[in-house]
């Protein structure tokens, strides 16, 4: 919840208005590196953040950026004020003077409208924090240049304050990134290909008339680095080898033992097939047991999805030329047995039963998600594109079902913990 305190974070004083400089200030009002972009970027990242501590950081700084927007907007308005009554001043920017009445609007210094495309939001906390550090660095440089073009002492003092806060935010974001204790280049979940990740492609080669000399430094030499000489030129020349440097390693590797991987994939598919067939028997019981109509509909809908997933698994085995038989999935048998125990235990407690059923359902979904991911990755290694596609469809359905169950659990938990009304 926002509350407007009718006082600027920093008191603004402009002694000598300068409409041209006011136009420059709009870069930090509605520009790509401006305060509104920062406020929206950090706030949206905060809304998406599941980490309470870092969410608080993002929302705190996002809110401060809104305060900075008010400071910059006030500075710009005071500098643009002469446009309201002076033609000479208005000629500094007719768009502001005529269309905007000499006031600020969400445009940059060139009159380009603000856009959400300025925001860098990935939903990956470490990646977003790196983007924020870079955003603060760019904003610091913009303020530095504005100070260099400003003659008004009061304005320079305000800009110095704002510029300093950019460094403060950089420090906070950097500390938050370090506190995650992730390796510097551990981005996302999928590991990069080795040794490709440590190969530096020397793609700007030349000597004398052919260009500047090649250079080396810690970015391409020492440690794990391996220089690959002109991979594009090798391809053009029809050569796959050279007397200098390492050879480029392709991103996708061939399976050392494709028969073994195919056997593993077939086993995984049969395990999933047995699991899904068991689930088709369990879901109607779960739908009947629940006391919440929406949860019953979710179980019924997922039963239809499960039947389609069985057909896909049979098709996958057919594409591999493997018999479409099942392999007893003991893990799923145990999970569904737990589900039966839950129904029996909480039969007389409606809210407890529904929450327990959701928990049991999510255990099942997570088990299936793990199975489908394993099968999909094995199929990718074998370059079985059609199998990968079918498995990805089912995997997406399982992930969506897990998400829907989680959404249903929240209001049920809230209602279960609310005190009874006093009559």
From TrEMBL:
Mn(2+) binds at residues 35, 65, 68, 136, 169. The keyword Calcium applies. Binds 1 Ca(2+) ion per subunit. The keyword Manganese applies. Residues 202-221, 236-256 are annotated as: Disordered. It comes from the Bacteria. Keywords: Calcium, Manganese, Metal-binding. GO terms for molecular function: metal ion binding. Ca(2+) binds at residues 56, 60. It holds the Pfam family DUF892. InterPro entries: DUF892_YciF-like, Ferritin-like, Ferritin-like_SF, Mn_catalase, Mn_catalase_dom, YciF. Its cofactor is Ca(2+); Mn(2+). Belongs to the manganese catalase family. This is Mn-containing catalase. It comes from Hyphomicrobium facile. The lineage of its organism: Bacteria, Pseudomonadati, Pseudomonadota, Alphaproteobacteria, Hyphomicrobiales.
